[in-house]
């Protein structure tokens, strides 16, 4: 990757992430191993990993304490990011209910009523707005709850809830667990890595079964529960003759309004006046997944595409909100005509134009933003344009509800066929492959190698986040072409149901959909009575974000064997590492593993899946049946 790009109007040396990584090398070994601490002013302290130099910080903290504190802080930040997103959705739902958010509406009343019933609210003769207000207020309450248990934890299998109860690990309120995590990591507070990790589990569960699950449920109510939808991915989705706007970040609150504004006939007419044939929206990162799942808006790419997308010279505006947005974007944009627009007060970037979005003004701000892009169309520098026609089709939109419906039909939606096919061995197991890109790994290669290896071995793969975008680009989410990658058993099931072998479940907060789907498999019966009994495994082969660590920890605390690639900043702490990679399984039934090489990662996951099958007594059930038409219909 050539990192440097010529800058016309900036004295700064404009670089891309890969070159900046080179300039960081060699990176600090203490940081990589997780054994440096600057939690107080007696430090910074670092532990000698070879056992020769200092083994304790000034306060006496050892490598295990320091690494576990750092780990818990990552969980707290990741959980905060997901949960603050969930809170914003709850606040929007309340404003919609009060008619204070023009442009937004309740798109899925059925899901609203279903959730209200689950919460024990009176639904008969209650208007949707009243219900939405109650549900929104309940959700806000879950963030600030001081005692008791987060409501959605009771969705987990009974046995899992009992484990959490026994270990006093059930999250109380989302915010409370984050604050306690930060408190415990203050100098001289919790200095036992096992105890720190129990808080890590509680805080992470408050994310997966709390903040993220609230975000997913309420977004479905507001914007619609995803259903299978065709989309496209790759830089080819950017149009040479149209105004191109990229939305990048996480909250659909912003992107939904921009999608609406781009359809406005007035604005379309204005775009035509400026010589453009239309207004084209594309997405990057999780906000892309959100609008793909609900509107079929094309994906431009994932995390490491954000700078590269600007170098096409064809992007009029890149509108960003929160999380995973590189500070370098305005610098890269300074070499082109692209305007980078920040929209959240929580996430500002020097050099970007700030256009403050609020629920009350979202509609008009979205128009303003689209207008800004239209005005900027004329400033394109033709000689700098570098577009490709390359785009790939995919099918996305596999919510838990959709999967149950596809498997069982509208009147008996159920996971039975999935369970039966797992028990019968056509499907060997299920993997959740999620997470980011990291420029230490050749872009997307770990995701693709891992997922191809899994589907070849009859493992159905569920995906979210940037990993999903990577696999969509490779054609794995095409229900026809994707079949070429499958083992025979998985292929038969996918053909019969009409799904690709790799299912796109949405953005990173939608990892909560994986928890709900896995729980539905347990409840369907025949595969044990806890999530830790299932032949499933999780992976984040190219992770970089603290959110990934929170997700990994709630997978593990939910009983899932979870493998991360790249590296984990824990390796300098021997006892803590042993705990994460082995001993934690005795408490939680799930554990962490680290394996940077994706083929070996697949081997680990397959070995775990086979071991689970053996424990369930279904290891010999993998007979090969070739389906004729009648049998397919039956299936
Ligand atoms: O929340 S996968 S790089 S975009 S953190 Fe970020 Fe990682 Fe992408 Fe979505 Ni998730
Ligand atoms: Fe050093 Fe302890 Fe302070 Fe950390 S908390 S910087 S290990 S003295």
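Q: What amino acid sequence fits the structure above?
A:
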């Amino acid at each position: 990757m050539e990192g440097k790009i010529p800058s016309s109007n900036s004295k700064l040396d404009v670089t891309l992430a890969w070159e900046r990584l080179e300039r960081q090398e060699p990176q600090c070994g203490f940081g990589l191993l997780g054994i440096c601490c600057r939690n107080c002013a007696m430090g910074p302290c670092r532990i000698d990993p070879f056992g020769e130099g200092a083994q304790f910080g000034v306060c006496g903290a050892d490598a295990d304490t320091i690494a576990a504190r750092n780990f818990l802080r990552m969980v707290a930040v990741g959980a905060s990011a997901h949960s603050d997103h969930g809170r914003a959705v709850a606040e929007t739902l309340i404003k919609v209910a009060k008619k204070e958010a023009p442009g937004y509406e309740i798109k899925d009343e059925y899901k609203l009523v279903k959730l209200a019933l689950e919460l024990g609210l009176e639904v008969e003769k209650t208007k949707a707005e009243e219900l939405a207000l109650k549900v929104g207020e309940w959700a806000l309450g879950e963030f600030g709850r001081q005692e008791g248990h987060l409501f959605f934890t009771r969705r987990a299998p009974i046995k899992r809830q009992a484990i959490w109860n026994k270990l006093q690990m059930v999250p109380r309120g989302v915010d409370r667990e984050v604050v306690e995590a930060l408190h415990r990591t203050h100098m001289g507070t919790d200095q036992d890595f096992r105890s720190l990790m129990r808080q890590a589990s509680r805080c992470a569960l408050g994310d997966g079964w709390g903040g993220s699950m609230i975000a997913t449920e309420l977004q479905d109510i507001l914007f619609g529960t995803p259903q299978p939808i065709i989309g496209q991915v790759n830089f080819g989705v950017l149009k040479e003759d149209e105004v191109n706007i990229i939305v990048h970040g996480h909250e659909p609150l912003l992107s939904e309004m921009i999608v609406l504004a781009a359809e406005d006939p007035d604005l379309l007419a204005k775009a035509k006046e400026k010589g453009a044939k239309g207004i084209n929206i594309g997405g990057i990162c999780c906000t892309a997944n959100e609008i793909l799942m609900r509107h079929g808006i094309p994906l431009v790419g994932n995390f490491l595409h954000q700078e590269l997308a600007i170098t096409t010279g064809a992007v009029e505006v890149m509108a960003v909100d929160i999380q995973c947005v590189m500070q370098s974007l305005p610098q890269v944009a300074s070499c082109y005509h692209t305007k980078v627009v920040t929209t959240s007060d929580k996430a500002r970037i020097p050099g970007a134009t700030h256009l403050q979005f609020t629920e009350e003004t979202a509609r008009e701000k979205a128009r303003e933003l689209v207008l800004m892009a239209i005005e900027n169309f004329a400033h394109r520098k033709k000689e700098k344009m570098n577009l490709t026609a390359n785009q790939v089709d995919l099918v996305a939109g596999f919510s838990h509800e959709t999967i149950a419906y596809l498997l069982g039909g509208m009147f008996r939606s159920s996971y039975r066929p999935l369970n039966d096919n797992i028990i019968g061995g056509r499907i060997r197991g299920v993997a959740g492959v999620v997470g980011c890109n990291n420029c230490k790994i050749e872009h997307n290669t770990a995701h693709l190698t891992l997922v191809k290896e899994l589907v070849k071995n009859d493992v159905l793969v569920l995906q979210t986040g940037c990993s999903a975008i990577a696999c969509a680009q490779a054609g794995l989410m095409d229900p026809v072409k994707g079949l070429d990658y499958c083992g025979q058993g998985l292929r038969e099931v996918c053909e019969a149901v009409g799904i690709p072998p790799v299912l796109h479940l949405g953005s990173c907060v939608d990892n909560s959909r994986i928890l709900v789907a896995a729980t539905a498999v347990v409840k369907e019966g025949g595969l044990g009575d806890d999530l830790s009994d299932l032949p499933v495994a999780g992976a984040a082969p190219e992770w970089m974000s603290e959110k990934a660590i929170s997700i990994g920890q709630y997978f593990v605390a939910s009983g899932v064997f979870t493998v991360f690639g790249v590296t984990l900043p824990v390796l300098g702490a021997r006892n803590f590492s042993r705990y994460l990679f082995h001993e934690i399984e005795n408490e939680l039934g799930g554990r962490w593993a680290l394996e940077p090489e994706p083929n070996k990662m697949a081997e680990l996951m397959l070995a775990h899946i086979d071991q689970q099958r053996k424990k369930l007594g279904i290891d010999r059930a993998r007979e090969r049946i070739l389906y004729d038409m009648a049998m397919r219909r039956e299936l």
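Q: And what stands out in the fold?
A: Residues 63-223 form a domain with the Substrate Binding Domain Of Dnak; Chain:A; Domain 2 fold (CATH 1.20.1270.30).
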